[in-house]
Every structure is written in C-alpha cells, then in structure tokens.
Amino acid sequence: MLHDSSDEDEGGGGGAGKKSIPTKGPQTSLNRPVVNHVNTGSPLLTKSDYSSSPQKTTTSHYSPQPNFHASPTPTQRILPTIPSNSSNNSPSTSLRSSTNTNLFPETTQPSMVFNADTTSIKSDDSSNQSEGHLHPSQQQQSSTRNQDTKAKPANTNNLSKTLATTTSSSTGTTTSSMGIPIDRAPSPSPSLISEREREENERVERELELKRKRLQVYVFICRCVACPFNSKQSSDMARKHLKITLVQYGVIKERFLTFLNGKTRIEADEAFINAVRSYYEVFLKSERVGKMVQSGGCCSDDFRDVFRINIEKRVRSLPDIDSLKISKDTVLTLWMSKFDAIYRGQEQDQDNSNRRLSKSNYMSTSAELIMSKEQLYDMFQNILTIKKFEHQMIFNSAQLDNNDEQAATIRRELDGRMKQAESLQRQRGLMPKFVHKEMDTLYVDELKKSINDLMSNLESLPVRGGSDQKPLRSKRGASHSRHGSSSSSGMHSSTKSLHNDGNSEENEAGLSKLAFVLNFNVNITCKEVRGLKSIPTNRIVYCTMEVEGGEKYRTEHAEAGKPVWESLAEFPTNQILPIIKVKLYMESSGILSLDDNKLGKLSLQIDPTFNKTNWWIDMVKIKNASADELKVKLDVRMEKPQNLKMCGWCYARGKNVWKSWKRRYYALVQVSQYCFAMCSYREKKSEPTEMMPLEGYTVDYAEPDNGLVMQDAKYFFKAVREGDVVTFATNEENERHSWVQALYRATGQSHKPTPPVTATTKSTQAAGTSGQKDQIDADRSKKTGFDEYIQSDPCKFDHHDLFKTLQTATLDFRLNDPYCSLGWLSPGQSYVLEEYCSRYGVRGCLRHLYYLNDLLDRAEQGFMIDPQLLHYSYVFCASHVSGSRPDSSASTITMEEKDRFNEIKERLRQFLEHQVTNFRFSFPFGRPEGALKATLSLLERVLTKDISAPISRDDIRYFIRKCLENAAYTNYTRVSDQAKIEGERENQQQNDNETIYNTDDSPRKKIDDLIHLAELCIELLQQDSEHYQEAFQQYNDLLMEHEEIFWSLFAVDMEHVIDQQPIESWDSFPLFQLLNDYLRVHDTLSNGRFHQQLRDTFAPLVIRYVDLMESCIAQSIHKGFEKENWKARTRGCATSEDMLWKLDALQCFIRDLHWPDEMFGEHLEKRLKQMASDMIEACGKRVSRHFEIWIKKGGLIGGTNSDYLLPSECCVMVNVILDCKAQALKLCALHSGDLHQYHTRIDEYLEKILGDMSRALIQKLISVLDSVFKKLSRYDEGSFFAQILSLAKPINEDGQAYVLCVNANLEQLRQKISDEIFTLNIFEEWYRQQTQFVFTWLGERTEIGLHPYQLACLLLIIKKTHGSFELQGVQEKDLNSQAYLTIMQRLHFEETANAVK
C-alpha cells in the first residue's frame, strides 16, 4: 500500500517528546463495511488527500492533479496491501450513510518516498503527466510537471526496491497481515493514549484503507480499459457544451454594461439597445442566474437562447411596414450577430483571452469524443488520485499492453466466477437475501447466464497478436510492389477464415490440421553487394530474390562500380520454416548470349522470429566467377500472423504425441479465444506434423531430467493433464520463461507458474526479451507491494462496494470538469463503467441506485442535475424491483435492492417536491431547457405506487397542488422582501398575513412601495407564463390556482395599505390601474377571485371620487363665472376651459380604469355623461346671462352711434358656447345603449343659445345702420331741415362713418370668434338684413328723389360694405341678391337724375 508522509505533520514532526501512532489489530480487508473506515460527510474529493502539511488543508472541490511533496528524511515503511482472501460477503450499510461517505477525507496525508539502497526516488520525481494524450481538464496542470520516466531514467530500475512512507515522527517496526514491515513506535499502554492520538490513529487507518481501495479499483479499471469486450464507446451521445464559470459570468455582465454605457464600437439602434437593457436588467443581473452559474448548469447557449426568445417576441409584435425593405427575420439575424459581438467582447485584450480560452477548450474537447486508452488511463488516474509512477508500475506488472495476457486474465476471471456460482449453488447460505425464497435457484442461473454471455462476447473477439509490431519497409520501385496489397489482404482474409473454421470445428472430436495452416509475409530488401572489384565498373549487375516454392523478384539494374539498391520484395508463404534464396547476376555482353552470368548465390532458412537489418552475409561464389569474396547486405524480416503466439525450437516428449525425445520446431497457435494448440512443423511444410490442443492442460516449470538433459536441452517445463504429461526443454532460460508464460495464458489455468530459484547465469541477466522484462516488472511490483493488487482474485471482492466508490469519484470528477454535464458522464467514463459492471458482475439495479443516491447528494449540495438522468435510472430500478423489466426476463430481486429503492424513492419524492415548490429558483428562466417538464414527468413516475398500474391522476394533482400552493407563498415572500414591503408582523395577529409598517413611513411612501411590489409581482407572473407555462400545460387549472393564491397574499398587504391612506387621497388609483390592466387581458385571472376583490375594494373609492369631483366642478362653475373677467383663452374663458378639462380628465380617468364589472362600468359612464351635460348647461345659462349684459356695452370712440364696436367679451362668450358645443359630443355621448341620450338635449340647448347670441349681435349692428339712416332722413325732399342742413354742404360723412364701423366690427368678429362657420353665418345674416333695411328705406321714398347727400352716402355704404363682406367670404349669390340689384338700380337712376339737374 502506498502512502505519502512528511516529517512535519499533525503529530508535530520528528521532535523529541512527540507521541507515536500505534497500530493494533490485523489489517482490515478491502470489503469490510465502509461505515467503519470512512468518514461520513461530504462525498466531494478534496486536495487534502495528498497535502504535505495541515496548513494546506482546504475544503475546495476535488482537484484532479494533487501536488505531492517528498519528505526530506523518510523513515522506511511499507504499507500493508489488500489480503487476497478478502471476504466476499460484506455487510450492507444504509444508503444514506454509505453514499455520504467522504471517499477522500480532508486530512493531511504524508508524502511518498522510495528507498532503493542508497538512492531515494521521491514522489516529486513522479509526475502525473501522462505520456501521449493528456486529459483535457489537466492540460495546464500537467504541463508544469516533471516526467520522471524521461528526466530520471536511471531511477526507474530502483522502483523494484522497498516502498517506504512516513506517517509521523514514529520509530519502530510493526508487521502487517501480509508480512510487510511498517515502521511504528511500540504501542504504549491504553491509559497513555490520548483521545486525540486515538482519533489520529483512526484517521490514518481510514486513509490507508481508502488508498488501498483506490489502488485496487484502479487495477480493475486498467484491465477494463486494456481489453474491453462487452461495450464500445458511444459516438452518438449528445455533445455537452462548456459551462460558464463565475469569472466568465462577471466578464459577460461587464461587457453588456460597457455596451449600454456606449463604450463599444458596436452600432445599434434604440430598439436593440432597449432589448439589451431589458436582457441585462432582468436576466443577467438576476440572482437566480448567478446561482445557476454557480451550480454548473449554465452554458453559453442558455444565455443566447434567452435573448433570442426575448427579441423574437419584441420583433414579432411589431406591425408590418410595407415601405421597409428589410424583413423581421433579417432583423432578428442582425440583432443576434450584434449580441454575439457583445457576448464575445470587442477589445483587443479580450480577443486574446478568448483565443487562449478557445485553445484550451479545443484541447479539452476530447473528453466528449472517443478517447484512446492512454487518455482513459490518464482520466481515471485523476479520478482516483493515482500517481503516475503507480500507474506505470501497474501497467508494466499487469502487462496491460499485452493483449494475450489480458485475454488470458479474462478467461481465468470467468472460470473463477463460474466456479463461484457453482459453489453458491451448493452453499446457499452465502447468497444474498431475496424477496422470495424461490429466487435462490434463479440467482445461480442468472449468474451462469451472465458468465456465459461474457464468454460468448470474449469468443466473438478476433484473434489478436501479443504485440503491435510494424513491419520495416524501405522505399522501392513501383515494379516491385505488385504483390504488396494482395498479400496483405490475403493474409487478413486467411486469418479471418481460419478463425471462422476454428469456431465451426470446435464441437468436433478433433481439430483439422488445415485450421493450423499459417500465413506469413517474408520481406527481403537487397541493399548492396561487395567484392566486385574484378568486374568492370560499367558492367550491369542485379540480384534475384525468392522463397523456395514461390515467385522470383529482381532488383533494378546497377553498375558494378556502385552495386546499391533499395528494392523490397514481399513473399506470401504458408511455410513456417521457409528457405530464401538470393542470387547475383551480371548481364552478358555478347549479342547472342541468352543467359546472364551468375556470380554468386545465397540460401538461408528463416523462422517467424527471424529479423535482420543491414545484415552482411557471405555469398557462395560460382565457378569461373570473380575471385573476390562476395558479400550482400540484406534486410530480412518474417511477419508473424496474429494467431501465432509463440514459436521456436524445443525438445519434447509425450505419451500421446511426440513420443520420441527429439528437437522439433513448435508453434503455439490460437484458433479462437478459447481454442489453442501446440503444433510441431517441419521444413518446407505448411501443415503441422503433430498437434496437441491445450484444453485441460496445466503448464509449470519442471526440474531437469538427467536422462533427457542435452547440450541444447537444459531448461525444462511440463504440460500436465489427467492421463498425459508432455515434457519440453529449451536451450535458454529466457526462452523457457517465454514458453511458460505463453502457455499459461493459453491454458487459462488459475495457478500461475513460478520460476524456480536458480543461480543467475549470463543468459538470465540479459533483459532483452519481453519475457525477461515481464519477470523484472513482476519482481519489482512484488517488492513494492503492487503485486498483491495485481494478483488478487477478482472473485473475492465485493465489486458493488468498489464500484460505488468508483462511480462516486467519477461523478465528482465529471461535475468539476469544464463541461455543463448536468450529471451525465462522458462517453469515455460511461464506457469504462459499463465495461466494469459487465466484467465483474455489478448488478444493474444496485448500480443505478448508487448513481441515484450520488446524484441526489450532489443536487442537495447545489449542483444542477438533469431530471431526465434521474428519470432514466429510477425507471430502471422501479421496473427491476417491481419485476416488470422491459426485456421480459425474470430476474432476482434482493432485499438490499428493495430497501434501497424504497429509501431512494422517498428521498427522490422529497427532492422533487422541493424542486417543484421552488421551480423559479431550481430552473431559472426555464433553464435547462425542458428540465421542469422532465421533473414533472419524473414526479408522476415516483408517485405511482405500482409501475405496472395506471397512474392515479388525482394523487398527482393533489401533490402538485400542494407544491404550487407552497410555491406561491415562497415566491411572494421573496418578491416582497425584494420590494421591501413586508415588515415586522404584529405579535397580536397570529392567523393573518397583515404587514405592519414603520410609523415614520408616509402613506404616500407606502402606496409607492406597494405599486413597486405590484410591478414586481406582475413581472414575476409574466416570466412564469413565458418560461414555465408550457411545462405545466397539463396542470393549467392548478397553475391558475397558484396565481390566485399568489395574488391573495398580495391582497392582504394591499388592503392594509389602502386602509391607511387618508380619505381625501387618491394615490391608490394607479395601483388599481396597473393591476386591472394586467388582469383584464389575462386568460385565467380575468374576473377571478383577486380581480373581483380588487373591484370590490376600489368601487367605493371610485364612487366617492366621482361625487367629490362633481361637487368640485359645480363649485368651480358657480364661483368662476362670478369672478370671470372674460379674457380670451385658447378656446374660451378660464372658467369654461377649466370645467371642460376637469370633465374630460375625469372621464378619461374612469375610462382608463377599464372597470371589470360591465354593469358598474355602464353606470359610471352614464353618471359622468349626465354630469357633463348638467355642467355644460349650467355654464351656458351663466354665459347667456352675462352676454345680454355685455352686448349693450360698446366703444364710443367718436361720440356717435356709428362709432359702436362690438365688445371682445361678447366674442369670448360666444367662443365659450362654441367650445361647449364642440366638447359636448365627446363628453355627453354614450358608448353603449342610447348614444345621444344626453348629447342631443345639451346640443339643442347650446344651439339655441348661439342663435340668440347671433340675433342679438346682428340686431345690435343693424341698430347702428338705423341710426345712420335716421340722420339721412333729415335730408328728405320737402322736409324742414333739408334746406338748413344743405347749407353746410356735406359730402358723405355719415356714410364714411358707417363704413368704418362695419369694417371694425367685421374685423372684431373675424379675430375674436374662434368658429369661422359661425362667423360667416353672422356676416351673411348681417349683410342680408342690412340690404333689406336699405331696400325698405328706399322703398318708402319712391315718390320723392334722393338728396345728393343721401345719394352719396348710400352709394358709399352699398359699394364699400359690398366689398367688405365679399372680402370676409360672403358668397356672391348672397351679395348680389335681388334687393341689392334693385337698390343699385335705384341709386343709378337717382344719380342720373341728379346729373341732369
């Protein structure tokens, strides 16, 4: 057992007076109860397993690359290893305690030291850096490590020495149960041992046990990786994205804030900026998102999807604009590209960091792809905290690179498991407890079936060679490669057919010799010839190469002065001992010569072990050839087929075969994974002369037989079977060892041959062969304590306990890697764990129960776990426990599985209840996508009592209803805390939820806080509808009930705040408007309980407000017109505009309330319309009364009546009535029922007032004309004053005065009265009455002529007023009436008459 130690640990180092840690009792086995040796607590792996001092102990998550520190003065100590006779029946512990165990406790572990004579190899020299591919999550850590296999190759041989560690400054030596010395001080009396030392002793023991368990698990894992035969790495698993860390989350928020502050070069319009601002405020700044990032369940796609969904709703809701040539889809694409630019960052330093990050991400992507064996080894080293040198020792000693050794190990394991199953059938007391007694027999059959399936899987594997050897090939011409591809493919097809033939003939009594015909490739490269000095340099020479019985190959031509070639010839052959021939020719110079001159030849017998490179060999000269000694330089290699495991020359003698003691060439041939045979061959023969199937034989080393010892037969070994003994002998001990090891793998025997201890010879000291290397590795492993782990019998371990340790460590490693895994293992991890379970018989139900327990532990610790993963494992376990497996195969069910399942089911139910209750915080913004829906689906499965029975919808709905009720209270509590609305509760009120506020807060502040809370509540429910409604689609009524409960909690605070508002305060109406606008368009909450409560709460307030406004407007009319100065305003006077504005504002306010009750809404509308009608009528009465007073007033500029100017106040009054009439349609017309019930009456009333005003104005203006004509009447012919007034010789003064008066009043009316139509009507009527008045006055004087003065004034008045009214817009037909034409005719007549006079 390996353990690190330091001189200065918790015990205080090696100083005097420090008490040592005693060790009492035997060493505990690996599969003793976990609860007795492992700390209960957090199952997370920590760095502190290998910390060198207590100051470095941390509580952080497991780091895959612990830092090891060597002790400067180590005390020699070898830790005990796992006993090989460990009990197979470990007591079961409870699920909760077993899974919560801390596999790597947070303690200070001593550092590790090798002592090899005077040389120490410290653990600092051993690096965790893997050779070849590094695990992606360990690229940066491993890059700074030293690689001791390269940096200190001299120390590698010292690994065979004693492995020593120190745990404290203790001295003395104790011996473990395995006989390995452990340096410790003698145990003091129990009275001298303090409690702290006892705890320290227990802690050290736990660490030792955990280290032993990790090493043993790693040995089994290495075997699964080295030779998998049950599972394959999946290449179609969903790729996991890189998760966002807290540091990256802060950088992302900073980038978006920088964009919003306008500090980036990204151009954007206002709509996109608003969308980004909403995304930043609502999503990025959300506390729930921060917790999701912390839980490791958030990736960049989640951030992007939330923004995409948000802008899609914004853009889709916009109306289509035909004039725009850009589509909405194009807008979305542009916005997403800008979002990506913001997300990535635009600054140069950010770009550089992104490039570095992307490179590291690229290096870590191999974790999600198919991993090589080296990567798998490296990953599980990090998972189980195995050091690099420990892996190297295990790798070399277990021969993990030797496929034959691994296949033989599997065969021995399966044979052992089959024997164990048979022993269980005889000893039923060793079986686990089942739910039914009848399952005992079924359990044994189940074990045998699984073992037979494994054997079938192993048998289906193709036969592979013992080592991956690459042929040495040189460049050759195209003319010499015609057989390259055909020979290779032929060898492959022959091997395949041989394998198939062997399988088909296994059931026969004997094997055909044709099954052992082997296919070889002989590669010969002729490079150079020496000894041609006597031949002219310009002569052409060449070589031919052949394997006896095959084709000939010829090299290219070369001059004798430089006979160099690079010609490779490949020869397929079935002979295991072929003869190759090489001949040297010189081209004949004669014209009539038919044959070339042969200069030399070479004949050589080779075997599959033959391999020579750059080999100079003498050629036999031909007579009459050159006298020089000929040598040729060759590369010769014979490629072995994959099913040839060993070959060589041996002596042998047996009872049934090889009955004579003679030297033969033997080959160990594999036909299939379970069929091997020892065959002997002769030269030039392809079929074996004799063969011996190895089934049932046991091989071992043997003592020399004096009667058989020969010069080349010194080292003996035997193959023994009942009734037969075959003795073999070799010339070298290394060759014997290789034969024994190869036969040991082939026979599948449980007994491992041990070489006899003999004097070391020169041949045994050589370490050139693989067998000698394996022996050295085995010796080194045995001395350092690893041999017990490697040689331990897997059948004697509780693999369920080991697998639980492995799976827990793997899950912790996975949750801390850079990927957003959500608990899903990587393809490589799943592949290895699946291989482990299949190979070592881990029950599938227990495997998933362990996994469920680990997942629930991590979920409770804050990790994000995919509910689909929980669902998959739970359904598997439920179907198994209920006996309704989907594969329709009967399977045994143990009491442990049933008890664990019931405990997991209850724990899972509680977890899912918490998840659904806190769905907003467990799945922020609906992330991960589909997780909530999967959680509800899993909840339905968990609540089902029997998996085969139909799901009870009532029970599920009741459970979800309770969860959503609690969720409503939880959500409102958190949002009210956020809005700072909820204060201290009254101590006297125990049964309600009323909130007590500080007395310092004003009612206005409280209502503002309540409105803010309402906004947050609306935003919360809108987010729920957007992100969670789809998941609750089957429970829409329960979700509606959840929302009603949520609003009922809000209603308690709302009632309390409104009750505290002053009676004259109307600040609460914005709250009603906000809530009602949200509720009235809601599909389910409209006219719901809270909506009705809201209506009932605010109805009295609305009625009181309307009553108060009616009284206020009436008072303003009464007091306003009494003090009105009739100054012109926009449309009327100050009082009228204020009245109309109040009426309009009141109606708009009530209308904007969108009162939910239709009847009450109609009542309010009629009430307001009638109020407006009454107020306008009151206004009209007061204006009419004031108009009658002001119309009598006028400006007397010249002191005559013709100087009258209409008062502007009268025009203002007219404007008031006109404004009231214009606003009456909007203020008095109903929107339902009798639309003009109130408008018609008030419109008629105002029309009457305007008519009266118009007549009064015209009458006043005509009176001015009457006064002028009264003056002109004094000039009538025959009157008393005519003569007198004529003496003054007047011209047309009265006419000019009247014209000026008309123009002034026309301008006054035009500028002061706002309604042009009304003004034009007055002008038309005024002109008509004026013309009629003149016509009547002239008609009274038809008998008399007009005085010249009268004529001059009339002409001036008629012509000037005609032009003035024409300029004001009076139509021509009204101007040129019949009366006007008659008047003009009379005036022209009078003018002519006066001219005649």
Structure notes:
The chain has 1397 residues and is an alpha+beta fold. The chain has 41 helices and 22 strands. Strand 18 (675-681) and strand 19 (690-693) form a beta hairpin. Helix 32 packs parallel to helix 34 (1208-1228).
SSE order and pairing:
Layout: H1 95-99, E1 112-116, E2 119-122, H2 139-143, H3 148-151, E3 162-165, E4 174-175, E5 181-182, H4 195-226, H5 246-260, H6 270-284, H7 287-294, H8 300-317, H9 328-344, H10 348-364, H11 373-384, H12 388-397, H13 403-426, H14 439-459, H15 484-504, E6 520-530, E7 540-547, E8 552-554, E9 558-559, E10 564-573, E11 579-586, E12 597-605, E13 611-618, E14 620-621, E15 631-639, E16 644-653, E17 662-672, E18 675-681, E19 690-693, E20 698-702, E21 715-721, E22 724-730, H16 733-747, H17 762-765, H18 770-784, H19 787-791, H20 799-815, H21 827-840, H22 844-860, H23 867-881, H24 895-917, H25 919-922, H26 931-943, H27 953-979, H28 1003-1027, H29 1036-1059, H30 1069-1080, H31 1089-1122, H32 1134-1152, H33 1158-1190, H34 1208-1228, H35 1239-1273, H36 1280-1286, H37 1293-1312, H38 1316-1339, H39 1348-1367, H40 1372-1375, H41 1378-1396
Antiparallel strand pairs: 1-2, 1-3, 4-5, 6-10, 6-15, 7-8, 7-9, 7-11, 11-12, 12-14, 13-15, 16-17, 16-22, 17-18, 18-19, 20-21, 21-22
Helix pairs in contact: 4-11, 4-20, 4-21, 5-6, 6-8, 8-9, 11-20, 12-18, 13-14, 13-16, 20-21, 20-22, 22-23, 22-24, 23-24, 23-26, 24-26, 24-27, 27-28, 27-29, 28-29, 28-30, 29-31, 30-31, 31-32, 31-33, 32-33, 32-34, 33-34, 33-35, 34-35, 35-37, 35-38, 37-39, 38-39, 38-41, 39-41
Pfam families: C2_CAPS (PF25341), MUN (PF06292), PH (PF00169)
Main location: membrane
InterPro entries: CAPS, CAPS_C2, MUN_dom, Munc13_1, PH-like_dom_sf, PH_domain
